[in-house]
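User: Structure please.
Assistant: Input sequence and predicted structure:
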Amino acid sequence: MLTKLASAINARAPGRALHFVPKLNAREIKRLCESLDFVITGRMHLAIAALGSGTPALCIAYQQKFEGLLMHFNLPGDLAVPASLLNDPASMASRIAKAVAGKDAQQRSIRSRAKRVAKFSAKNFSG
């Protein structure tokens, strides 16, 4: 399904969508996220890596975890798309277009909240 989505995006904007299959370690993923304009993912850890590196993300929500993550960065809840929307290519394309159109504002919000989020997440590791 993701291969089809990447192909559809590239049909409209050639060379703009990448669908990665190779296994990368956490550092490589974070570095990759830093070089991207936008991420579309159904994986929580990739969304965390993207947002943590300042890259906006559209999250395909299979569970209600993404909404809380987005709230930490003061991002709109509609960046969490229900997985069922993948069955409606026109609606999915519309949501992607809307999300990408707002990426500059999202990036400003991510950057403005990054230190606060990092400080908050550090509490998970303190005793």
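DSSP finds six helices and three strands in the chain.
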